[in-house]
Amino acid sequence: MVSDTVRSSPRFMHLPTFMRAPLIEDRSEFDIAMVGVPYDGAVTNRPGARHGPREVRSASSMIRAIHPVTRLNPFELCQIGDAGDVPFENLYDIAAVHAEIEAFFRAVGDDGLTSLAIGGDHSVTLPILRALATEGPLGFIQVDAHTDTWDSFMGSELSHGAPFRRAVEEGLIDANRTVQIGIRGAQNSMEGWDFSEATGMRVLFMDEFTQIGAEAAAQEARDIVGDGPTYLSFDIDGLDPAFAPGTGTPEVGGLSTVEALTLLRELRGVQFLGADVVEVSPPFDPAGITALAGATMAYELLCLLSDQSSKKGA
Amino acid sequence: MVSDTVRSSPRFMHLPTFMRAPLIEDRSEFDIAMVGVPYDGAVTNRPGARHGPREVRSASSMIRAIHPVTRLNPFELCQIGDAGDVPFENLYDIAAVHAEIEAFFRAVGDDGLTSLAIGGDHSVTLPILRALATEGPLGFIQVDAHTDTWDSFMGSELSHGAPFRRAVEEGLIDANRTVQIGIRGAQNSMEGWDFSEATGMRVLFMDEFTQIGAEAAAQEARDIVGDGPTYLSFDIDGLDPAFAPGTGTPEVGGLSTVEALTLLRELRGVQFLGADVVEVSPPFDPAGITALAGATMAYELLCLLSDQSSKKGA
Amino acid sequence: MVSDTVRSSPRFMHLPTFMRAPLIEDRSEFDIAMVGVPYDGAVTNRPGARHGPREVRSASSMIRAIHPVTRLNPFELCQIGDAGDVPFENLYDIAAVHAEIEAFFRAVGDDGLTSLAIGGDHSVTLPILRALATEGPLGFIQVDAHTDTWDSFMGSELSHGAPFRRAVEEGLIDANRTVQIGIRGAQNSMEGWDFSEATGMRVLFMDEFTQIGAEAAAQEARDIVGDGPTYLSFDIDGLDPAFAPGTGTPEVGGLSTVEALTLLRELRGVQFLGADVVEVSPPFDPAGITALAGATMAYELLCLLSDQSSKKGA
Amino acid sequence: MVSDTVRSSPRFMHLPTFMRAPLIEDRSEFDIAMVGVPYDGAVTNRPGARHGPREVRSASSMIRAIHPVTRLNPFELCQIGDAGDVPFENLYDIAAVHAEIEAFFRAVGDDGLTSLAIGGDHSVTLPILRALATEGPLGFIQVDAHTDTWDSFMGSELSHGAPFRRAVEEGLIDANRTVQIGIRGAQNSMEGWDFSEATGMRVLFMDEFTQIGAEAAAQEARDIVGDGPTYLSFDIDGLDPAFAPGTGTPEVGGLSTVEALTLLRELRGVQFLGADVVEVSPPFDPAGITALAGATMAYELLCLLSDQSSKKGA
Amino acid sequence: MVSDTVRSSPRFMHLPTFMRAPLIEDRSEFDIAMVGVPYDGAVTNRPGARHGPREVRSASSMIRAIHPVTRLNPFELCQIGDAGDVPFENLYDIAAVHAEIEAFFRAVGDDGLTSLAIGGDHSVTLPILRALATEGPLGFIQVDAHTDTWDSFMGSELSHGAPFRRAVEEGLIDANRTVQIGIRGAQNSMEGWDFSEATGMRVLFMDEFTQIGAEAAAQEARDIVGDGPTYLSFDIDGLDPAFAPGTGTPEVGGLSTVEALTLLRELRGVQFLGADVVEVSPPFDPAGITALAGATMAYELLCLLSDQSSKKGA
Amino acid sequence: MVSDTVRSSPRFMHLPTFMRAPLIEDRSEFDIAMVGVPYDGAVTNRPGARHGPREVRSASSMIRAIHPVTRLNPFELCQIGDAGDVPFENLYDIAAVHAEIEAFFRAVGDDGLTSLAIGGDHSVTLPILRALATEGPLGFIQVDAHTDTWDSFMGSELSHGAPFRRAVEEGLIDANRTVQIGIRGAQNSMEGWDFSEATGMRVLFMDEFTQIGAEAAAQEARDIVGDGPTYLSFDIDGLDPAFAPGTGTPEVGGLSTVEALTLLRELRGVQFLGADVVEVSPPFDPAGITALAGATMAYELLCLLSDQSSKKGA
What we know:
Shape of chain A: globular
Largest sheet of chain A: 8 strands, parallel
Distance between the termini of chain A: 22 Å
Structural class of chain A: alpha/beta
CATH architecture of chain A: 3-Layer(aba) Sandwich
Largest interface: A-D, 33 and 33 residues
Number of helices of chain A: 10
Helix content of chain A: 25-40%
Strand content of chain A: 15-25%
CATH superfamily of chain A: Ureohydrolase domain
Oligomer: homohexamer
CATH topology of chain A: Arginase, Chain A
Number of domains of chain A: 1
């Protein structure tokens, strides 16, 4: 198949689709769609995540097929393609953009594909959840420096600091089946932390994560989300700025990539029906390591999704 | 006075106000206000100009007082201060942000001060013109790679590609007293170029500018705007990317800084009642030369404004 | 058509094909093929041009359709597509790689398409010329800091300093219909300069170019190549390092982009049957301005090629 | 209060005072003064720390108020302001500059304020200690790659490699109540290490720190300094270059930010009467993560100082 | 001696030989030769390692003499010099270049010196092993993200992904006395991993390394290589990209520098007869931390080699 | 000869002496000494020029032998070597450092060699002039953004803004045989400009330079300095920041490299007895083009010096 040839060619060649996977023209031939969501209109701080999908695509040429630990090959388990970017017709109205994102992911889902999204700022997870949570609230695993459960900011309830407050309010995620990992950084009020804890989310602050380690964190996450359908959202600012400087709201003292890879790998078996990597901001990434980290986390998520998808199909 | 001491201290010291001028606490003590407008929500391409005011302020510590050619010292001609940034309460709704900008500049003008704005994307010039053009359309000199007279884009009529179409429609600028200098770069339609020329603007494309030179261009601009009140807007992308890589929509083949300095210097005597420098985007400016170019252009504008302001006062 | 929609969408979106043109699947639907040649195995100095096609593609999203001076729209004149990269099977043997390049361009030409190549190091022009010069030596216009007519280096006669010596020897280009523009930089021997001048090439050294200007240089180039079929090769190091730092062998004191754009524009009407832009080396291009300059020069060449191609077709 | 509004506004706005705190005009209204010390004339290696205060100020806009672990809000515990930079009148004579620094910190202390200094090179801690150690030697906690207890270098006894040798000699710090954490890197002689150990300092080399961990290190530090008045100096090169590349004398194999944050947090309760963060060198910090790390460490120190200061006041 | 004076002078001064050691003119005066191998013609991905020796030399000015943990001073134990770069006469033919490398190292060895090589891409280790393994296969300790035991790629069996497959086949290293540490990253086939394990190498994948820690890994490596002559090859991509972004094939989730320093330090006593640090690629290293990490690892290797060499000499 | 071989080898190889010339061990074998002066302790603004000699040396590997316009080969005209850096014993006392510089250049001159110095900040030219002007004041050609004839600053009369005021006062240069080219940038007082003009220097401000062009400027400079012994000092900030961002005090609107190369080339025949290139500051030079510009200017100066030296010897 073309994609195998492409994936085995030198990494600097050819059009950089996600993971050098084929472009999706006919969805019926695919199980998993990787989708770019180049939108950063909802950031509260440094912009640039609109350039994330392009640079993560480029960095993802570095990624190959067979996992070094699990020996899973997602490209053998499933038919995986690059669905391109959500084709926006709006750029300046968060709600309108969110509606376009929701419609696109709903269409992909309606055609039977599981989606792996690459943002874009974290606000884009909200419309994706709206598209996916059609049969009740989802379990939710979030790797992030911030809970993103804050309320309105500078005139909007849809900023990238608010999506999971909205998601709870709209019944898209089940707070009791939600875990937020890597939370840290000072805040001007406790509004977001309080909302998360008051609604029943498990907030695994970074100091506790460091104490218990990635494997125990993964085990706790598995216990929390249980057997039900679950979504995973990986905000690249969950990583320490040494590992991911290219993001809009960096907070020092975060996860190492070893910890993040361990955490994700140990989540195998959770019933994931979607996932994303968000907040890679290339203008702040002079050495390109953030895009590479984002692409690698996306690969780990692809392993989780393909493992689930292949079992579901069996 | 404090600002003189500060301006003579080493350039790496102290809080970086614009040109190391004093912060304005009581407007009645000042003639000219430098104002930051950290907004980039209307860009069509690469964001980052929201960080422009901060980095132009920092680079402007390099700037000193007495002009090497004209020997003007704007700080002796006028009382010049830094009015801080427009204090936004909105961030995600272009029209609302523009209303806040307009209100701030109107208030500064009502207190008798001339403003020099530092953007921010080029959309911010529209509300500034709304604040200033209270007694009829203004003459308008624009240095830019793009005419910014395009119509709606991705759902908005207020993008940074549209402000001067709106300004003509709203009667804020007089197309027959308007000159656009440095225009270049391919376009997907001729809509903007056609609008400029159809309404009577002089569009001095870059190839013609190169032929006639900066001094002739300045003379033509003086002839076009005549004796009436005039506004000058300097989009840093008017400069070539070698001189100003840090901008959202760079177009190769632009003005050198020697040409730009000559052009501005030769506009002395025009009746300027306001000016701005926009579209400095620090995330794309690894060597900081764009912010320095922006600060230097702002200094030239300060010379023009202070020269006018001091004569007006006399 | 899809490409128009894509070309009008925000520049940070979608897969970055050259100029956001459609990927070529069926050559019979296209007139002009843009081809990536990601090879830098023949450099004598700094590598990195293998990454050129990808970054020029990405930067070319900035480019739009209608030329600001000539008002040509190459995408209306011709069907233009992105043919992807030459699909190498060798990477470590210059001659073998050159054979693959030649075969690819020969196949594209056999299908009736004109090619615009994006390198890669300058050695890649040699096999392209081999593919094109099937009916006798071509006229040749080269913009470059170096004549690239040197002999063997470090064990190879195929380094990127030698292609046009080989091209003359092989009868691919007509030295009497060849002009080399922008030549400069000290050399350890006069071998290359001497070869160029001894065989009858016009070597327009940079000091003379500065004296006569871009328009006279273009006129002289037109006179030299005359009415016959001609190839144009633009080595990005013809530009000054201020405008194009990201290249393998920079030489200070080169063309500005204004000069280069004027030069290319004034070559309209020459019977071009192919062209390339080479030696963009992204690892040395922190602000991305070299890739943007390369993309813009490629657009100018596209205008020249499409203008010719459309007349030929008429 | 103004500072609260400012601290809650978007992080890219407004003049970047330290932590977006108000500028101190009347010291009597404040408890804690953050002071910039933009001096790097005593470095032995790469300069640039003179630009530290400005970039740490800018990065500190990222910092907010409430600590994610302790829930302390230093801005509620104390009145905290930015006292600007030490207003130097000398730049080229280390002793003269040190005298100016000492005088400024003495004045701030005489007015009853606790100081948090942001350097500048590490030599600036010496005059600060001179200003503070008015009632006998202080306890001293130092995070650093180097003991900075070396003797004269290239003609001076005041280089940034010598301040704590001088501080012991002058009776400013009590070697028996001193701990140096993170020490590593080869040396040309053992002079400095030997001085530290011979005088009774606890030198916690990096290999031992790694063995025992940050919490045990903090406990040992608390035991060493005991109940007496103590100063904390954080040289950013204590962090690994992955976390803090922007410093004059980087040494690989240092603390992670998780370790540093843990260490500082666990020092709560020590009777700190002053602290500093030094050696952030922005010219070597292309992604800005060193300035952000410096600002975050400064915030942790602010928590420690405000916690002490508020108890003292009670 | 001159080198001591040089090593004690400010780090920004003088010609940057490796570790500021004297240039070797007469080999009979030296015990250990540091050798640059500026070749990257065998990379499969991003080039640039040809610039490695120069930038590692420059960064190594930061390194001094006495080890902070072991207190070894290699410059007292042995006479150590910089032998310059392998003087290539070929650049474009991997086998020819390898022959030149082999000849040079053989000559150095014949003169009784131990070599510490600085690459260059990892292919250069193969000819070095050919020069050294004159009396049977060597023990082999490799720190790397990749096993480099893959077979032919793009027409060559000598790419930097293949050297240790070749080394086993040629009887240069003893697979049963080989350990590969830090292996990670997805692969398109298991060919390389399988070869390593099938021939008896111990492949310590990164996940297991993280579990057991650097000290246990060192102990295991010591057990595997035993008392026989052993070579150590340190591919800088064994480090995580946060610590070493400047390399051709980065893989996230690697060793920290603390782990790497511990690992190397604990290998003291192994009978090393040569070592190298490879794959530092300066064009991808904007903050210079990769070159510094490479220089520091080289210093650790110098300690190991000089410790052995001095005992051998005794 | 060794240096020829080295100069013809690939530019990324071998120890980077200036122009890949041999290191000078025995001065009697050489005519011209290139000398590094890595000192930046007298800057008023951004430091970093101490790293200039090393990076100019590295960039100068790009430079080869035969001039493309004049066809001079300085390495055939004279024996040219790299004398290393001035071996400082002081670093923190400007006067003491200056004394060391003077002594070194005096010794080089006493041995009959002409020196080409690479700074370092511009203060270093003062002690060089002291060493050279042993038989009366010299003619002086300065390319610079600043006259550097200011008086004391922050406690010193020896800052890099003052050397030529001191040089006139000390009778080292003849103001009536002095020309300062490229002067621009606002100033806080006219002290320096006034001193230059009052003492009889020709100050060719940038606006006038632009009007008359580089060739006329060179002619005027030749007329001013006449037949007597003359020194040339090239401050890299004479170039525009687009061409030379890496300097301590950049001023936009400066010379292009084409203009600078023309200017220097046209000075052939002036009786130069020494020259320098100063103020290259690598930490502010992310693309390395400033170091390359500095190396190229140094090569032009080498042509001028060798042309003179060879005639003198004849």
